[in-house]
Design goal:
The protein has 13 helices and 15 strands. The chain folds into two domains: 227 residues, Ribonuclease Z/Hydroxyacylglutathione hydrolase-like (Metallo-beta-lactamase, Chain A, 4-Layer Sandwich), CATH 3.60.15.10; 92 residues, no CATH class. Strands 2-3-4-5-6-7-8 form a seven-stranded mixed sheet. It is an alpha/beta fold and 370 residues long. The radius of gyration is 21 Å and the shape is globular. A hairpin with an 8-residue loop joins strand 9 and strand 10. Bound molecules: zinc ion (2 copies). One zinc ion binds next to loops.
Length: 370
């Protein structure tokens, strides 16, 4: 049995800051890399670890962080600690487009003229593109069963109570929301697309993209071949299980892809791990195995719960599972909990252990034992 204690903490100051719920310091790492914590206001994650990667022509910033004035101040202070300024930034790589990673990219590009790189599958998930695709589907009349946005999906497909959905949606659909698709202002479109195995175009540095779908469809890890380090984004974190949600219509389920992407991490077990949250560590194969085991147990719990309840809706099933808080205390994050439950059910359905027909007509589809 592997436990978190079997990981070797490589950043005692970061680990201490994580425990004490404060911001860790900017740190210079081996081979000229820099770790810059960028705060996420009012969020229990507290900060994103942004990385500065030097090359012959300037710096690449991996995951600039959440878009706020406080975040911008922290990022530019980190650049200054590295003896640089925004104008020295030649490129930005987003491991994925969640706002705590990609939010500040637009502002950094405006201040630097840097190119922006991400995986092509990730670019398709940019909120602006999703909203456009949603509108196109609706105009074609192709929206299934009159389902509108995440709220409609929760009610009509998952069987969530209407008043709870309104409560959840009020939190998630901010002022930029359109057609039920939450907005995060203008998120930067990519100039450079990085596919699996591609080198980041930074002369003098061998920084290789490894496509690790799961947390998002186009999530990238970056392997610094000089520093023997792997920047894992949100794919692997030392003490947090990344959220896996449903992205239907993209081949294998996201959980199947995530488990495959975790198995790939064993190749880099001798590398230092530079995650986007918490702290640096060693023991990547062990941590990947812990995460695989977590999902195995979750799958077993779900199969058992379905057998016990008998044909629950997705909402009833999620309510029954073990979460770190009670179902009511989870509040609006029940949207993520439902996404996580759906991801497991889709995976189990693919393996023939359960069945669930999200497109079924006539109300929420029950989850059934196969
Ligand atoms: Zn993320
Ligand atoms: Zn994150």
């Amino acid at each position: 049995m592997v436990t978190p204690d079997t990981l070797e903490v490589r950043a005692p100051l970061q680990e201490q800051a994580w425990r004490e719920r404060v911001l860790p310091p900017v740190e210079r790492l081996d081979h000229g890399l820099w770790s810059v914590p960028v705060p996420i206001p009012d969020n229990p994650l507290r900060y994103t670890l942004s990385y500065l990667v030097p090359g012959d022509t300037g710096l690449v910033v991996v995951d600039p962080g959440w878009d706020s004035d406080e975040g911008w101040t922290a990022l530019t202070a980190g650049l200054a600690a590295a003896g640089a300024s925004a104008s020295d930034v030649v490129g930005v790589v987003a491991t994925h487009v969640h706002p705590d990673h990609h939010g500040l990219t637009d502002r950094l590009r405006a201040a630097s003229d840097a190119w922006v790189a991400m995986h092509p599958a990730e670019a398709e998930t940019l909120p602006s593109r999703q909203a456009a695709a949603f509108r196109a589907r609706r105009e074609e009349g192709g929206q299934p069963r009159g389902v509108t946005g995440a709220g409609g999906w929760l009610k009509q497909v998952c069987g969530a109570p209407a008043e709870t959905v309104d409560e959840i949606m009020a939190v998630f659909l901010g002022r930029d929301a359109e057609d039920g698709v939450p907005g995060f202002g203008s998120m930067a479109e990519p100039d450079v697309l990085l596919s699996d195995g591609d080198l980041v175009p930074l002369p003098g540095r061998r920084l290789r993209a490894v496509w690790t779908p799961g947390h998002t469809p186009g999530h990238l890890c970056l392997v610094d071949e000089t520093a023997q380090a792997v920047l894992t984004g949100d794919h692997v974190l030392p003490g947090i299980t990344p959220n896996i949600s449903s992205h239907p219509g993209q081949g294998p389920s996201m959980l199947a892809r995530y488990l495959d992407s975790l198995a790939r991490m064993a190749d880099y077990d001798d590398h230092e791990v530079l995650p986007a949250h918490q702290y640096r560590f060693r023991g990547l194969a062990t941590r990947a195995e812990q995460l695989i085991e977590h999902h195995r147990q979750r799958c077993a719990e779900i199969v058992a719960a379905v057998a016990e309840i008998g044909e629950p809706t997705m909402w009833q099933l999620a309510e029954r599972l073990t979460w770190s808080r009670t179902w009511a205390q989870i509040g609006p994050m029940r949207l993520a909990a439902i996404g996580e439950t759906v991801a497991h059910v889709e995976y189990l359905a693919e393996r023939g252990e359960l069945s669930w027909d999200a497109a079924a007509a006539g109300g929420p589809a029950p989850v059934r034992a196969a």
